[in-house]
Amino acid sequence: MSKTNVDEKFLDKKITRRQMLKLTGVGVAGLAIGASGLGGVLSAFGEELFVDDDTTATNKVNFYGKHQSGIATAVQTNIYFAALNVLVNSKQELQELFKMWTPLAIRMMNGESISMEKQNDLIPPKDTGEAQGLDARNLSITFGVGLSLFEKQELGLASLKPAELKDLPHFPKDQLDEAYTGGDICIQACADDPQVAFHAVRNLVRAASGKVTIKWSQAGFNSFPVEKGKKQTPRNLFAFKDGTENPSGEKDMNEVVWVQPGESTSWMTSGTYLVVRRIQLHLETWDRTSLKEQEKTFGRHRESGAPLGKRNEFDGMEIERKDENGNYIVPENSHVFLAKQAKARIMRRSYSYSSGIIDSTGAYDAGLVFVSFQKDPEQFIKIQNALGRLDKLNEYITHRGSGVFACFPGVKKGSYIGEALFNTL
Amino acid sequence: MKTKSLFAILIAGGVLMTGCNNSEDAKQVDSTVSTEKTTNNETTNANLQKEIDAYKVFALDQLDQFTIETEKFVQAVKAGDLEKAKEIYPHARMYFERSEPIAESFGDLDPRIDARLADLEAEGQGEESWTGYHKIEYGLWEENTTKGYEAIADQLLADSKELRARVETVDVTPELMMTGAIDLLNEVSTSKITGEEEIYSHTDLYDFKANIEGAEKIFTILEEQISNKDPELVKNLSDKFKTVNDLLAKFETNDGNFVSYSQLTKEDTKQLAIAVNQLGEPLSQMGIILE
């Protein structure tokens, strides 16, 4: 049996390093074992073992739980989003892939290297290493599966496809580029550190060499002003606050985001749907727009984030408000007015991006990695349709990339990412 | 080697192992109680002497062929036979590209034979110090002539012969072989797949194929050893080599020639590049035979 296999078997099993120390009953030997690999000893004990969240780790987001991390998790400063295509040819191989990824994700979310193996200096290190010395930085890793995965006949998943998982319709003014669209699997890595987020995706993809290829990826960033010790809503590159209307609290999240029993296919219970849009913001045209026009475009005040005519960010939008002349205070073609009319809610978790300069125009290739979570992509579709051709913001933005992914429910200790899907037969 | 050191520690610590269900581990216990990790080069090299010898035979044969074909090429250039020189050019180079891990051991000869103008410029040198195959490539395809390249051709042949003579002295080690296999793939990834190796003749796919063959030869030689450690890795590597070779075969014309690099679409090069990268990961694991 290969070293790799031994190690993966070990990672599959249910034990923590701390339990290991207890089991060996020899502190010093135990520590030495921890550093030199555990495969042989663990199988000797016949224990079922697994890699666990290290609750003592600094800046740690838990991997295990009812829901995946990176959805209700407090928004971090950085994202590295990757859409992958799979090369595997059977459901079993796909299942093995998610099993293999599970301990790696936990380790990285613990701020650890993906491998505890002793290094043979004639082969490359298992972990690419650039996150060494950094703590977990609140890394969250969210996995989802796209429509195209269910359409691969060789995987035999067609009957498991949730009815809600469909291609988004074409929206007015969409200019989707195939190079930023779709994917069989998505990995959303978010962290309070760009290098930690990138490291997570890089190592998951590398460990899956021969099984996946990256179709497209996008890095993004957010910055949070802090007032009275409290993180404020971040601003997008148009300087407007993004994410003000997000659901909060369990009840709200259950209504908007988490699939409840019976609401989708059974394996999606406690899961959610991720919509990603790579939206170019035309910074040059925006920057020559007057403040008044900018605010009328969004329907909010730029500085405070308050609805037009109000003082505070979290004041009610009340879109029916009219001035003394009977005109809507929040213009009917403003972004929030139209979005509100859709009467649908979503959980926005967007980041800004800046990826160099567009060859053909010399303009910034910058904008928004729009990410939203909802229990049904229809919620997003409703809002996007309501924005339609009318949205005043259309003039300043172009949707270039798109994806919809079904994000598994959370992972129970001892289980693996996506088990619910593979157990449904 | 982790199992060895692990068991050594356990025994030293007085932990009694009763339920050991890994026979491979059990076998190793007594012989390695006091040793840590063995990377004694002499021992491992001796164990792999058969493989080292096989690779030497291969490399010497390739460079024999290289000298012979280079001589034909040089004759064609000096005879002013443009078409014949163009015909021999990509094929002669393949022998060099297959054995590059060895050929490039000589820091002076490799650039004299194989430097691109861009390589020299990167080192602050100019066209005047440019020699070898790519210089003649420029004459054949850009200037459409052999005139004025006779002296360069003579020099190329002399350098090729010197290379062949000096190769006898190369100390082939398993490490050189394994690093060499990866280097061959890296060559493909960084210059062949981008069309930067043969910017005038666009015969990059010949070099591509030869680099892959060179790496595959090393794998084949080490296959049995790898199989003893990890049969899965052998299967994986065989699959990945096949994928690359199948893709390349799509661009092979029936007489053993390849289409011009300029005919490849962006999608073609992307597919090839991905296949090479997917081969590179398992290939980098061949070092397990030395732990």
From TrEMBL, chain A:
Places the protein is found: Cell envelope
One term of GO molecular function: heme binding
Enzyme class: oxidoreductase
The organism's place on the tree of life at top rank: Bacteria
EC code: 1.11.1.-
Pfam families the UniProt entry points to: Dyp_perox_C, Dyp_perox_N
The keyword NADP belongs to this UniProt entry's keyword annotation: no
Keywords, sorted A to Z: Heme, Iron, Lyase, Membrane, Metal-binding, Oxidoreductase, Peroxidase, Signal, Transmembrane, Transmembrane helix
Transmembrane segments: 21-45
Gene Ontology CC terms: cell envelope; cytosol
Domain Dyp-type peroxidase C-terminal: start-end pairs: 233-411
Dyp-type peroxidase N-terminal domain: residues covered: 68-222
Cofactor: heme b
Cofactor stoichiometry and binding remark: Binds 1 heme b (iron(II)-protoporphyrin IX) group non-covalently per subunit.
Coiled coil ranges: none
Function: Involved in the recovery of exogenous heme iron. Extracts iron from heme while preserving the protoporphyrin ring intact.
Similarity-based family: Belongs to the DyP-type peroxidase family.
Name of the protein described by the UniProt record: Deferrochelatase
Source organism per UniProt: Lysinibacillus composti
Automatic annotation (TrEMBL), chain B:
Main location: other
Protein keywords: Lipoprotein, Signal
InterPro entries per UniProt: EfeM/EfeO_iron_uptake (IPR050894), Imelysin-like (IPR018976), Imelysin-like_EfeO/Algp7 (IPR034981), Imelysin_sf (IPR038352), Iron_uptake_EfeM/EfeO (IPR053377)
Gene3D superfamilies according to UniProt: M75 peptidase, HXXE motif
Gene Ontology cellular-component terms listed: cell envelope
Localisation: Cell envelope
Highest taxon of the lineage: Bacteria
Domain Imelysin-like, chain residue ranges per copy: 63-286
Family: Belongs to the EfeM/EfeO family.
PANTHER family reported in the protein's UniProt record: IRON UPTAKE SYSTEM COMPONENT EFEO
Listed name of the protein: EfeM/EfeO family lipoprotein
Source taxonomy: Bacteria, Bacillati, Bacillota, Bacilli, Bacillales
